[in-house]
Amino acid sequence: MTRPNLLNNNAHAALRIHSGRSAALGDQIMSALAVPDEFRNLQAHYPIVFQKSADGTQFQPVVLFGLQEGENLFLSADGWDAHTVPMSVERQPFMIGSDGEQLLVHVDLDSPRIASGAEGEAVFLPHGGQSDYLERVNSLLLALHDGMAQAQQLSAALQALNLLESFVLDVELDDGSQGRLAGYYTINEERLAALPGDLLEGLQREGHLLPIYMTLASLGRFRDLIERRNQRLPASA
Questions:
Q1: Which domain holds residue 172?
Q2: Which of 17, 128, 152, 181 falls between 20 and 30 A from 55, CA-CA?
Q3: pTM of the full predicted structure?
């Protein structure tokens, strides 16, 4: 459950945020939403795939951190083991709401990231101005807001051209145990290569080709996920 509250420097003058990475702070997650502008950086670490929206009518891009629910193979006692964290994760516990055309910042007051005392990052300065931390959060939220619209456009283009297909990944670990990842979608590379030039040109014109190629490049990261899981297997006697 979340308890979003409109952020303001009077009610939240003393608000401070834990900005580290740990399971206790809510980072023990298998996946997170991603937006096209960050695909180039994300593909260096994580597989980028697509999942159906809750109502089943649309697709949305996500990055995978694990191979099963509640598993984040990038999380350790030392923090997050990757140079890039998706914006949808980094922005926590803040979110954007709207009042007409005006975008407003909210904070989830039930988030484990809400700090007490002098711990964490100050959100507001003593005289009420925004801290450098909040300025970074505002920029992040705006980029994420704009990026979600781009993600919808990318997904709609992929659907229109019938480029998305479901896949199943069967996993066998070094100890012989097996598992299966299912329920996600990827881009059919053969159908993409077979598109006529005018459709490819349209994808390029709309800014979709680079995210598409970054998505395909990211699929090699499944091997990294499996290796990370193998490294966490109990040592044999």
A1: 4-231
A2: 181
A3: 0.93
Indicate the helix (H) or strand (E) that contains 139.
helix 132-160
Would you say residue 237 lies in a domain?
no
Neighbour tally for 50: CB within 10 Å:
23
CA–CA distance from 30 to each of 65, 70, 162, 181, 213 (Å)? 5, 5, 27, 12, 23
Mean pLDDT of 91-108: 90
Structure tokens given for 170? 């069967």
Nearest by Cα to 74 from 66, 32, 56, 132: 66
Tokens found for residue 177 = 């145990």
The three state secondary structure string of 163-227 is CEEEEEEEEECCCCCEEEEEEEEEECHHHHHCCCHHHHHHHHHCCCHHHHHHHHHHCCHHHHHHH
Q: Where are the beta strands (DSSP E) in the chain?
A: 4-6, 16-17, 31-33, 48-52, 59-64, 75-76, 79-80, 94-99, 102-108, 121-122, 164-172, 178-187
In a domain, 131, yes or no: yes
User: Is residue 236 one of the residues assigned to a domain?
Assistant: no
The reply to whether 194 falls in a domain is: yes
Q: Is 67 helix (H, G, I), strand (E, B) or coil?
A: coil
Tell me the pLDDT tens digit for each residue of 44-88: 999 999 999 888 888 999 999 999 999 999 999 899 999 999 999
Any idea what the Cα angle at residue 68 is, between residues 160 and 32, rounded to 5°?
A: 50
Domain tally, the chain: 1
